[in-house]
Amino acid sequence: MTLKIYGVAASRAIRPLWAAEELGIPYEHIPVHYQDTAALNAPAFRALNPNGTVPAIDDHGLVLFESLAITLHLARTRPEGGLWAASAAGPSQILQWTLWAATEIEPLARQWFHHTSFLPPEQRRPELAEAARAQLQTRLRVLDQQVEEQPYLLADGFTVADLNLAAVLQRLAALGGEHFPHATAWHQRCLGRPAAQRAMALRQLQ
């Protein structure tokens, strides 16, 4: 039985796809689109993700949704793949940075994206986009300081924490990345990894 990953690469499914590529896990990619309401509402898919959103996975019978939970699961259950931390403090630090990405970064990044690109023009509110971008600057300063003297978030090296945060910050350049050179260099290191490039290339196929 093969790991199954549901969701197009141009969605949060890029996160488990990237993780699977990093870990060298054989997987089947089922590119359910986030706007395909028929597919998302089908009983078979709702059994995988009752929220009717992507991504979802079926890992040899274990069904999970929520992209960051999925990447943590894949990294933790395949420690030989190198995405989990080797140090005693590492697992807690991975959780810290992943939750920081989910609570401090993603809501603001999504607010900015929705009101600059995603929503129909008549529904966009530029003041909300600018407010989100402004609030993100203090968060990006935290990241910039963290990677000023080490290449990745943890001393262990590249882990699923970097993968999760880099994926959440996929639009770092547009969010003010030019003011944070250490964060920008870290982001480029993460997205330049061969596994990241292989996952990103899946977007061209959909």
TrEMBL record:
It holds the Pfam family GST_N. Keywords: Transferase. Residues 1-82 form the GST N-terminal domain. GO terms for molecular function: transferase activity. The keyword Cell cycle does not apply. InterPro entries: Glutathione-S-Trfase_C-like (IPR010987), Glutathione-S-Trfase_C_sf (IPR036282), Glutathione_S-Trfase (IPR040079), Glutathione_S-Trfase_N (IPR004045), GST_C (IPR004046), Thioredoxin-like_sf (IPR036249). The keyword Transferase applies. Residues 87-206 form the GST C-terminal domain. Belongs to the GST superfamily. This is Glutathione S-transferase family protein. It comes from Hydrogenophaga aromaticivorans.
